[in-house]
From TrEMBL:
Organism the protein comes from: Planotetraspora thailandica
Name by which UniProt lists this protein: ABC transporter
Superkingdom of the source species: Bacteria
UniProt keyword Cell membrane, yes or no: no
Predominant location: membrane
Family as reported in the entry's similarity comment: Belongs to the ABC transporter superfamily.
Lipid bilayer topology: Peripheral membrane protein
InterPro entries hit by this protein: AAA+_ATPase (IPR003593), ABC_transporter-like_ATP-bd (IPR003439), ABC_transporter-like_CS (IPR017871), ABC_transporter_ATP-binding (IPR050763), P-loop_NTPase (IPR027417)
Gene Ontology CC entries for this record: plasma membrane
GO biological process: response to antibiotic
Molecular-function annotations in GO: ATP binding; ATP hydrolysis activity
Localization in the cell: Cell membrane
């Protein structure tokens, strides 16, 4: 049985600065963050582009040195025990780096040799992983013939060839269609059920809510909130959001009429968001003000609303 209290990743005052040593003009990508990831959980790092997510992941993957602070992974120091840590990690980068000149199965076999695994073990694991990722029928096909979703699944299968204790996933479903995304979520959920620890970055709200047990929200290199998706939504938002869209040229006038109708109002380029405990009552109040939007939608609050509250901008900005 998995011991969920065991800390596998422990970051304290973690900092990453890009630039030459001593260069005061260096860019600080990660600015003194603290977090812990426990065995068997799916932990998310949420943030807009440039928030520091990928820099954090690269330090955890032991391919980018820590500038300051401490980072211990699987009980080892990332600065001195990088090779030991990497041997027990699986990494799914943002961009697929699979070899297009090899077949699907050959990608797994060749990659597995980097870990010194014997051919007999590799053949057995490759067959099992191809079945797990639903690629068995494509085993002897060239990678060039695969769809984008199949390539992502192959990248995940390759990351699992060494039976890692932690799998790092950097924007795992970017660019995939909804069907491919949901299939990938299903595979990741199964990994978590099997006791594998997942650390993923994403800017998809539904992905974070579906997959993550806990998460942190990053903005400008700092952690601005931490908790379960439900805790963050309860802490930083009201129960519902009323989304209003207006005809071109009408938004500013209608926005002015809506002021004061909800506890919080966010103006986005394509819509107006009113945070409220009762969306239908707020919509009635909007209509009483003579406001007639093109469309009106009442929905439950989400992690995107949390991000708006914390940073003042949309996650996709």
């Amino acid at each position: 049985m998995t011991d969920s209290s065991t800390v596998l990743i422990d970051a304290r005052g973690l900092k990453k600065v890009y630039g030459r040593p001593g260069d005061k003009a260096g860019f600080t990508a990660v600015d003194g963050i603290d977090f812990q990831v426990r065995r068997g959980e799916a932990f998310g790092v949420l943030g807009a582009n440039g928030a520091g997510k990928s820099s954090t992941m690269r330090m955890i993957a032991c391919v980018s040195p820590v500038t300051a602070g401490s980072l211990r992974i699987l009980g080892y120091d990332s600065g001195t025990d990088g090779a030991r840590i990497r041997a027990r990690l699986g990494v799914v980068p943002q961009d697929d780096t699979i070899d297009t000149e090899l077949t699907v199965r050959e990608n797994l076999l060749i990659y597995g040799r980097y870990f010194g695994l014997p051919w007999k073990v590799l053949r057995e694991r490759s067959s099992r992983l191809l079945e797990f990722t639903r690629l068995s029928e494509k085993a002897d096909d060239a990678v060039a013939t695969l769809s984008g979703g199949m390539r992502r699944r192959l990248t995940i299968a390759r990351a699992l060839i060494n039976e890692p204790e932690i799998v790092l996933l950097d924007e795992p479903t970017t660019g995939l269609d909804p069907q491919a995304r949901h299939l990938l979520w299903e595979r990741l959920f199964q990994l978590k059920q099997d006791g594998v620890t997942l650390l993923l970055t994403t800017h998809y709200m539904d992905e974070a809510e579906q997959l993550c047990d806990r998460l942190v929200v990053m903005d400008a290199g700092k952690i601005v909130a931490e908790g379960t998706p439900a805790e963050l939504i309860a802490r930083y938002t009201l129960r519902e959001v009323l989304e209003l869209r207006f005809a071109p040229g009408e938004r500013q006038t209608m926005t002015d009429k809506c002021r004061g109708l909800a506890e919080r109002m966010e103006e986005l380029p394509d819509r107006l968001l009113l945070s409220t405990d009762n969306g239908e009552e707020t919509l009635s109040a909007v209509h009483r003000q003579g406001v007639q939007p093109l469309t009106a939608l009442v929905r439950r609050s989400s992690l995107e609303d949390v991000f708006l509250t914390l940073t003042g901008r949309s996650l996709l900005d």
